[in-house]
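Subject: Sanity check before I submit

Could someone independently write out the C-alpha cells for this chain? I want to compare against mine line by line before I put it in a report. The sequence has 113 residues.
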Amino acid sequence: MQQRLAIAQALAKQPRVLLLDEPFGALDPGTRAQMHALIKPLWREHKMTIVMVTHDIKEAFGLATRLIALDRPRKDPQAPERFGARITYDLDLTRDSPVPVLGFIRASVQAAQ
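---
Independent answer below. Compare away.
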C-alpha cells in the first residue's frame, strides 16, 4: 500500500520523468505482480519517462522499453578509461513475455566478460 501511495504522490505533480529506485524490491510476489500491472497503464496514460533501477532482471525485461545493464567497476590495463560494461537493449513494446529475452541477455553478458 505504501508503494502505491508513494507513486500516487509523485504523479500528483504530473512529472515528465518519474524516478523509481528499487520500488518493488521489498514486496511479496503477489503484490509485486499487482504493482507491475499498475505501472504499465500509468506509463501509457501519462506518457511520461520512467527511469527505474532494479536488480531483478525479469522485472527489468517485463517493464522496460529500454534496458541498460551495468557491470561492476573493473580495471582494464588495455583501456584504462573504461571502468565497467554497459549493454543497451531496446525492447519491442508488443512482446508477450520477457522469458525468450533472458537467454539472449545471459549470452550477451557472458560474451562480454
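---
OP: Matches mine. For the report I'm noting this point. The radius of gyration is 16 Å.
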